[in-house]
Amino acid sequence: MSRSGEQTALSLLEEASLRRTKPRLLVLQSLLAASQPVTQEQIAEQLGDKTPNKVTIYRTLEALCEAGLVHKAFLQDRTWHFELAHNCSEHQCHPHFTCTACGQTTCLMDMQVPAVKSSHNGYTIQRQRMQLEGLCPQCGQR
Question: What stretches in the chain show pLDDT beneath 50?
Fold first, then answer.
């Protein structure tokens, strides 16, 4: 991991008043290096031989989610995908696009999606996620 990634991870933990543990640093550095939301399994693969066990990675992700540093971006094939929360607001995540042909997921941070009203027919909406599916530009040209 890069020195700047380590410094950023340390800063994020400090801002959230979380202890600097090795698993937290490693997971945050992995998420900082990711260009798209990743699964717990992908984080473990990316960390290689430095990998804490899967239970530790899961607990670390949950703690980082509770602190607001990370969020569960979307659920695909019964697996959560995680990303840093800095590109989203407390109540709304940016849209994600998953190509149905190649499976690649892309963050669409420049796309504006209107927020749903805070309540509807007695439901209290706490967070809005949007996952779009279709063909990416490369697969759409084939």
Answer: 1
